[in-house]
Amino acid sequence: MTETTENFPDTVADCAALFGFEPPWRVPAFRVPEAHVPEYDPDYQFDAEVTLALLMGFAHNRRVYLHGPHGSGKSSHIEQIAARLNWPCVRVNLDGHVTRADLIGRDMVVVREGLQVTEFVPGILVWALERPVALVFDEYDVGRPDVMFVVQRLLESNGHLTLLDQNRVITPHPAFRLFATANTAGQGDFSGLYAGTQVLNQAQLDRWQVIVKQGYPDPEREAAILCSRLPGLKQATAYCMVQLAGLCRQAFAQGDLSSLMTLRTLISWAENLELLQQPAPALRLAFLNRCDEEEQPLIAEIYYRCFAEELLPSDVHPA
């Protein structure tokens, strides 16, 4: 993206053509994409409810917290909306090593006209605030609580950022937008799937103006996603794969499986199938090999129900 801070949305998006529905308000967009606009995926399948919530963020500067199970396409959803609006978008993965200085900035030694000088180098948050950028905090519930309080004031629509060591108050660019994705709703994780997640401070969680959950797509849309990503995949095979994924998710919910088959896993299975031309070994490489051995006979039973054939002997060794 160019370094100008004066860029503003200069057109209105045709949401009916882009997303399949028309929201009750106009959605601004950019005519010309910049370098930080995400890559456009023409086959992406949008969830109308989640898309409407995210468009509220882009159109009305609402702070949107998007949560849901892993592999459901949360970050991709935000990016693909940004791609269609030509809105620059930057993702920050909040692992446990991200510090306040990474977000705000620090004094660093730089070379200016052949001389070493010390100057303040802004962090990613300060950089994004001054530009027309949609900033996405990935894995928000994994970020260190003391670090995440940096964004407390910014979670209000007209929030500003105060740089204490610079004696400067930053007013966000009018086209700056803030989003977050997480696996939990901020209440912590009791399933054991998401190690390292935090219980979010309720005062901060209350400042997110739009909170929406994204689950896995319904079977029809999930099959459509597989077929659009892999045009050579037979529709009947895609439906069998989606049926197996649904039954595995039911087994997980009932406590019979400890591994969850996600949409991402389904796509990996389909990609492996395209290379191997056999669903059983493709399933083993995408999912079965990370499942507990005692649970593999159950997966073999589900596989038979969906594909009407046995898994190869090398795929599963029933007890």
Automatic annotation (TrEMBL):
Keywords: ATP-binding, Nucleotide-binding. GO terms for biological process: ribosomal large subunit assembly. The keyword Membrane does not apply. SUPFAM superfamilies: P-loop containing nucleoside triphosphate hydrolases. It comes from the Bacteria. GO terms for cellular component: preribosome, large subunit precursor. This is Cobaltochelatase.
